[in-house]
Amino acid sequence: MSGGARTLEPWRWLGVPMLQVLAATMLFALPIRLWGLSLPEPVFAMPVVFAWAVIRPSMLAPVGVAFMGFFLDLLWGGPLGLWAVCLLIAYGAALGGRSMLAGQSRGMMWAWYGALTALALGSGYLFTMLDAKGTPGLLSVFWQFLATVVLYPVADRLIERFEDADVRFR
Q1: Of 19, 35, 93, 113, which one has the fewest beta carbons inside 10 Å?
Q2: Residue 56 contacts by C-beta under 8 Å, 6 or more apart in sequence?
Q3: What is the Cα–Cα distance from 2 to 23, expressed in whole angstroms?
Q4: CB atoms within 10 A of CB 26
Q5: DSSP 49-102
Q6: Dihedral of CA 105/106/111/114: which sign?
Q7: Closest Cα partner for 75 from 85, 84, 86, 62?
Q8: In terms of Cα–Cα distance, which of 13, 87, 89 is closest to 55?
Q9: Among residues 90, 138, 94, which one has the least CA distance to residue 118?
Q10: Which neighbouring-strand residues pair with 37?
Q11: How far apart are CA 170 and CA 168, in angstroms?
């Protein structure tokens, strides 16, 4: 197929994006400093989580979302299950609002993506507060939110690539 919709083989729309997320997350976790600043730590899994919910319901997608969340917990040293739950909350909300997301403009989809990113990061903020019995830095959470929201074109590209591939939903 050229340029159009791709087939919905699980390795193509689930496996490859998940491996790309894991690689990008590991790359940005390296202790590299440019002009005295470290690289931002966006949640690279968010665009994939959003796109998977929009493209089509699947039994494998929540397993992939949980796997990416556990990977983030292990890499960033957080409590095991924190990011898995936060990403699954966002995935569930996107899946629940899937009928509202259908046919929306790019700007509106970006707004929905931003709202779901805020939901995931807000959940993480609240769960971290409960676990640590203190508050994480709001400024760092805001920068992580901003860095993650900027990644929406990745989700848009994934949606564009696979949204018409499943003939059952045409």
Answers
A1: 35
A2: 8, 166, 169
A3: 26
A4: 12
A5: HHHHHHH---SSHHHHHHHHHHHHHHHHTPPTTHHHHHHHHHHHHHHHTHHHHT
A6: positive
A7: 84
A8: 13
A9: 90
A10: 34
A11: 6
Domain ranges of the chain: 10-29+38-161
CA distance 156 to 111: 12
**Tokens representing 61?**
């997608």
Per-residue pLDDT tens listing for the chain (170 residues) = 445 555 567 677 788 999 999 999 998 888 877 777 666 788 999 999 999 999 877 888 999 999 999 999 999 888 999 999 999 999 999 999 988 888 889 999 999 999 999 999 999 999 999 988 888 889 889 999 999 999 999 999 998 887 765 544 44
Residue 14 is given by DSSP the state: I
* Alpha-carbon distance values, 150 to 11, 62, 70, 77 (Å): 26, 23, 23, 24
For residue 109, the surrounding DSSP H or E stretch is helix 106-132
d(CA 6, CA 3): 8
Q: What's residue 167's pLDDT?
A: 47
- Evaluated on CA atoms 76, 150, 123, 98, the torsion sign reads negative
